[in-house]
Amino acid sequence: xxxxNRHQGRYDLPRLVAANPALKAHLxxxxxxxxxxxxxxxxxxxxxxxxxxxxxxxxxxxxxxEGYLCPPVPGRVDYLHGLADLLAADAGGTIPRGPHVRVLxxxxxxxxxxxxxxxxxxxxxxxxxxIDPDALQCAAANLQANGLAKVIELRQQHARGSxxxxxxxxxxxxxxxxxxxxxxxxxxxxAQGSQRKRRNLGNARAPRGSRAPALNxxxxxxxxxxxxxxxSFLRRMIxxxxxxxxxxxxxxxxxxKSEHLPDLHKQLTKAGxxxxxxxxxxxxxKQSRFVAWSFHAPAARRAWLQE
Length: 307
Hints:
This protein is of the alpha/beta class. It has one domain (67-306): 3-Layer(aba) Sandwich (Rossmann fold), CATH 3.40.50.150. The chain is 38% helix and 17% strand. The chain is built from 10 helices and 9 strands. It has helices spanning 13-19, 42-57, 73-89, 113-122, 133-145, 187-200, 221-224, 229-243, 261-271, 298-306; strands at residues 27-29, 35-37, 102-106, 125-130, 152-156, 174-179, 248-254, 275-283, 286-294. The strands form 2 sheets. It has a 7-stranded mixed sheet, with helices on one face. Strands 1-2 form a two-stranded antiparallel ribbon.
């Protein structure tokens, strides 16, 4: 994990249960006799998230509707720390903090996890976009309950198939954009991926209380799959980023599948990106990464941040 990640080592479960007593019902004993939770159960992961958000980030209210993506907090905050390092490299080694740093989260989801964590860790202001009005309604309720509606704005993307087009206004300027793209190409592929993950977690049973075949940590169609999968989604993002290059300092996206990286770098070279960064991340045995690109030369990036 990133050195600034608060979640190094094992979870302090007694502390987390104190922050969210509902987590206690989801504690289990491992074969080694230690306490843990059933990470294949979305209900357990949701209560763990509530405990982490309350104890470590001061977020006292967080809820998502049944069936929506329940993201693991440690991995999500790693992405934000990596982006903070990206800005620091252009700012003399000091991480820019405060609401003047504006971040666009493409696909904010009902969980609104990146804006909540980014605001808590760095004080950044966010715009979160989504095509799902129900997800935005839930995200808005979380923001309102935590008094964050003034620093985190939500926008619905009405132009299905577009990412920045139809969303960014002419006056918008963002230091960062971020995205956790849908990486499956179909519902069938998503379900197969979830079954593999569940087997790796040592539990192929459906989560407690579920009424449908389980997807890994839940998730709606637009959260988990899209036509062409991750590779197609990232090509569209790169193509659109060319159009909006003067309004964004650094574009970025998680890339779940390493086999997509060669084509991604090829597309970015073709698009004329001035700089491309590939940042590795790891949580336990899981290897991940994000790719960031800018159309601005180093001197222009430094000037932008100084402004």
